Amino acid sequence: MPPKAQQDDPMDEDVSVDVAPKDLDDKSLRAFMSFFKTLQNDPNVIRFFDRKGFYSVHGPAANLIARQFYRTTAVVRGADTDLPYVNVNRAMFETILRELLLGGTTHVVELYESAGTAWKLTRSATPGKLSAFDDELYRNVEMAEVPVVAAITFTVAEGQATGGVAYVDSSSCQLGANEMLLDDQLSGLEAVLVQLGAREAVLNKDSLSFLDAGQRSRLKALLEGVGLMVTERPASLFNAKHLEADLAKVIKGGSVERHGDILERRTACSALAAVLSYAEVMAESSGGGRYLLSLYNPGCYLRLDSTAQKALNVLPSRADANATYSLYGLLNRCRTAMGKRRLKCWLKQPLVDLAAISQRHDVVEALVADQEMRQRLRDQQFRGLPDVERLTRKLQSRRISLQELHQLYRASARLPIIEEALRSHEGPHAASLVARYADPLAEYHDPEHLQRFEELLEAALDLDRLPNEYLISPTYDNRLGTLADAKKQLEDEITELAQSAAGDLGLILDKTLKLEWHKAAHVRTRCLRITQKEEKNVRSKLQAKYMVIETRKDGTKFTSRALKNAAERLNAISGEYLALQAELVEQVVVIAHTFVEVWEAVSALLSELDVLLSFAEAAVVAPVPYVRPEMLGPDEGIIELRECRHPNVEVQDGVSFIPNDCIMQRGESWFNIITGPNMGGKSTYIRQVGVAVLLAQVGCFVPCSSARISVRDSIFCRVGAGDCQMKGLSTFMAEMLETAAILRGASSHSLVIIDELGRGTSTYDGFGLAWAISEHLAGPDVGAPTLFATHFHELTELQATVGVKNLQAAAMIDPKTSRLTMLYSIREGACDQSFGVHVAESAGFPPEVIAMAKERLRELEGPSAKRSRGTESEMVKGQRQQTEEEAAADVAELQSFLRGFCNLPLDGMSATDAVAAMDQLLATLPPRLLAEST
């Protein structure tokens, strides 16, 4: 057994192992190796073998464990190849489990136990199905995320590919399904998977033939991008023949007829049948239906794809050096684990319904205004509140312990105090707080509900033994009381016998003579122990009257006939007592199980209130307090953010954030073009607008002095630059793929954020694309509010009926030193230069390089270059002075170009072919539309 693999903190240690496990004899080892060879070698399956005290991993998985968790090169004695096996103790086993199942990997974990010389699989888990290892995963660790399992399948109807998605959330007992028409980018499917936050998906591999090559390639990239573990299964798993009968067994009430909106969607039904089978919902629901089934409507939430989530830093990543780098880390001031999970869910599912958003804002406003109530709830009642949601899940499966039932008891006792605190508020939203939270809590804690639960626990638990032991009270059952009395009498008899032995040997009980336990052949019994020194003094009496059990360095254990007889009777009584305890615990759990629905409702209310308390606290403790936004209908056409700030940037150490206004109004400034130097704050500005809109629709206050926001149905982002060499994607191709999703999905109710579009190709190509895309987004067919940060200064000539406004990130050049100073202020007007050389100088470029760059820049900005640029500008302006017929022709040319661009199967093409196709499309446009001087 590798000695260093047994340490609790083995990082950066060498692992030294033998070739063969020394804990097995030859026969057992041969039997084990023969069994191991029969297992299919799948690199994604990590198999642990329980060796009663440690866990063994064999084969390629051993090397993965050594590299990933020990960060070491293993030293193998007796072998020149990789590690044959690695053994870990229980603490390390639990650490590895959490990383494999909760750390975003795509592994299956299996645990095998021995049955004689044979081995059998006893437990298995995947990132979406964790219940088999609940105890190990969440021992002294919060449950950070809800494991959601999804199923995906495809069909074709009338020549149009259709996708079916279903999901199961076992923690909240939710089932949902829907189907959608698929576009080339599968943007609708991506939005649903991002909203659900699914950890695992079962995919109908036989249905992939309904997708074209580009869609199949995009599907693969999409599933990788959202971090899903994908398991492919044949079409037989997606057979919906017995779906109605299965649903009747798992949904509350068993009434399937009222779910006709789902049953009429055949593709959705196929996905629902698969997720029921794969997630083993039928087996979990053997005690009766408990799931709520609904038609999942992604339109109920603001649409965020994975690109937008990353661009706005919505959720934390492993690369974050500080928790406040993400919106989740910034807002996460929740006191409970269930609140933290709910916060993640809300950030993935911002609301679009004005009434629902206003309801959250009302509660946050009341909590912000009433500091006493907020602190009373956060610091007294929610601090230390157990994870009611997870405990309810364990109660539902009847795998809950008495200690965990007592945690629910403690939570129940706090409900009246929480209710009282909510009723004490006297602000304008007092009635809303009472109706939404206080009245339901009072109902759940009335004499017919949780007061009965408390009475059950008070009667069943032996309160005198808490918190050291959690046992059924002897007064709860007469049989248990009789056994408890018999145990007490025998324990007293044994104490008297020990006292008698002490007097006989001339020793003092509990000083020179100890009454202890001795374990032999898995049986514990009472005995006496004296030290070796005392044993020499009483050896003659000891040998004459007593029976020596064991002699060790720490002393000699012995007993007498009377003591041995009493200890055997005590063992027999104790066995009966423990068996009856287990029987009564099971009875208590069965009775407590009847309160599951009440606890589900309580956990939902408490987690929601915890998140809103967190929002209020975040709004108050910010460097400048957040304000409540005024929310407007989607057709109002206004996004007005006064003195807006980026919430993640302003809390960083050493930052004195400069706020800026953002006024977007349809017909005047619906399309904002932001120019200015690199590092001047353009990217931060456009992102902070997206973040403010997202926060407002989640239900949080926003970092502004005032805000009026027309509700958006989606946020699209194209920010940052980067390639993906592993996928054969250049920087240009990566941004084209992201832009294609925007062009297909954006509408007048969206918010579009674009940063530096057109890099990675020639200047003319890049500008031509940027102009065409801007015209499309600002045109009558889309009319999306857009923030477009660019270095193409000619783009500032754009005009559109929705209203185009030019903004610039202000900067100042010292006339004496030529040093550039960023003002981080967004002002009206266009910037006519990018200050690239000045930024390079600030970055510490060698003086000779800076001097050469300035000289070359002066040459390029000479009279001929200025004339050329002027001609370019005039040509762009000239387009605005064309006749209606000429303008209509240009619009038709641009629309034709965009249709061709949107129809390119970019995902299925190599980078070279894609660029060639783009060049061919660009060649079809008239030169004047590319603003290219010939």
TrEMBL record:
Matching InterPro entries: DNA_mismatch_repair_Msh2, DNA_mismatch_repair_MutS-lik_N, DNA_mismatch_repair_MutS_C, DNA_mismatch_repair_MutS_clamp, DNA_mismatch_repair_MutS_core, DNA_mismatch_repair_MutS_N, DNA_mismatch_repair_MutS_sf, MutS
The keyword DNA damage is annotated on this UniProt entry: yes
Alphabetic keyword roster: ATP-binding, DNA damage, DNA repair, DNA-binding, Nucleotide-binding
Residue span(s) of domain DNA mismatch repair proteins mutS family: 750-766
Short name of any one Pfam family annotated for the protein: MutS_IV
Annotated stretches, region: Disordered: 860-883
Family the entry assigns: Belongs to the DNA mismatch repair MutS family.
Name the record gives this protein: DNA mismatch repair proteins mutS family domain-containing protein
Upper lineage: Eukaryota, Viridiplantae, Chlorophyta, core chlorophytes, Chlorophyceae
